[in-house]
Each structure stands twice: as structure tokens, then as C-alpha cells.
Amino acid sequence: HTLANLELQVGFALFDRSSRYPRLTEAGRALLEDARHAAGSMDAFKARARMLAEGLEPELSVAVDVMYPIAHLTAAVQAFHRQFPATPLRLYVEALGAVVQPLLDGQCRIAVIGSLPEVPPGCVSEHLCGVPSVVVAAPGHPLAQIEGTVMRAQAAQHVQLVLSDRSARTAGRNYGVLSPHVWRLADLGAKHAFLRAGLGWGGMPLHMVEQDIASGALVRLELETHPLLGTGFSMHAIFMKEQPPGPAGRWFIDQLKCTA
Fold this sequence. Notes:
Largest sheet: 8 strands, mixed
Shape: elongated
Order of helices and strands: HEEHEHEHEEEHEEHEHEEH
Structural class: alpha/beta
Number of strands: 12
Helix content: 25-40%
Distance between the termini: 62 Å
Number of helices: 8
């Protein structure tokens, strides 16, 4: 009866019923793969609807600090796609206040912060890992010629390369800026390239410059201790108290925990 109704809808016979057992017509054989695909899509639709009814997010949006180790982030994303193949994952990679702003605006469910050392009110924070950082310069840079500790007064005589905030959350505030001569860059990759080109000195996450230090493309500076220029970033996952992550978000946060 169901097949007869389907034939009425398409407007022609799908089965030849002239013999004892019905056989597909030529048109029926042509539509067979499409029918299998439609049936499979319906099964996937029912499975996804069942997961949503159980609380799974229809989509997961995450803002990630640019300082978070990219290799570990990539591995976590790959694992997420295997675990939740039907759940789209949207990632925003930013720095400082631009990591937090999408969360506060409701564009993201989770933010992974590190370069901004402040947790906004109304947010829950969960520690993920520590990311070591180093101060570096090109081997031809004047600061790289100094043996031993580089004093803050010496560093202040040269251009310091720092990340800029795409948001207005840190307007009027500086984190780890020691020199009055500052070039602000919105992209960590650009900062890395400028450091290698000898255009200034600055801090970088260790995982991004380890090979440069080993090859001699960059020199690690032993900068005089300063309370605003630490030796690493503490990475945290934050989310709004009234909007905790669902099963997919909770699983992704656990994947981001590392010892990097």
C-alpha cells in the first residue's frame, strides 16, 4: 500500500506486477539509489532529532585564544568531528578581549582565554593547561647581543611587538608592555614574522618559536623579571553561569585539557 502511494506521488509505476513476484521497472531501478539515499538521510535525521531531544547542542561555537597550542586544538577538533559528526563546530581564534566578547554577545557558548588574565563577571572558569612563553628577538637585533640578563631599561630603548585587541574591552590598558616604542599587531603570525625579520622584540608562546630558537632564527632573551611580563599563559575555558555547555561542549572542554 505504501509503495502504491509512492507510485501515485511520482506519477508512474516503480514495480512490474505482471508476474508472481513484483519486479522493479526500468524507472524504479533508476530511482533505487536515490531511494536508498533518502532512507539513509531519514535515519540520520531521526538520530539527530533524538540526540537534540536528549540535550545535545545543534551547533557548538567556541572562541579560542591565539596562544592556545594549535597542534592540540587541531587534535581536539578532529576528535570532536569523530565523536559528534552531525554537530557543526564553529571556531573563532582571537586574542585578549576579542576572545571574551563573542561569549558575552551570545555568539559563542565557550571561550578559551589565556592572553586576557581576567574572567568577566557572570562566567564560570575551568583550568585547561599552562602554556610557557619566552621573550625573543632576531639574532641580529641589538638586544640579542647582550650576554646575560637584559635589563628593562635596555629593552625599553627598542621597539616592542605586541598583540592588539580587536575588541574595546582592554582599551587604555596594556599587558606586558615595557617599551614606549610599540608596534601593535592584530595577528600572532604577523608578530612572529616581524620578530624573525628583526623589526622588534617581544614575547611568544614557546611552542610557536621552539624550532626558531633551536635553528638560531630567533634568540631567547633573559629579560629582567617583571610582574606584568610572565613566563607563560594559564589557559581557561569559560562559559556563562546561566548557559553551561551541553554534552558536546562538555566533551570538547575535556579534550582541550592538556599539559602543554
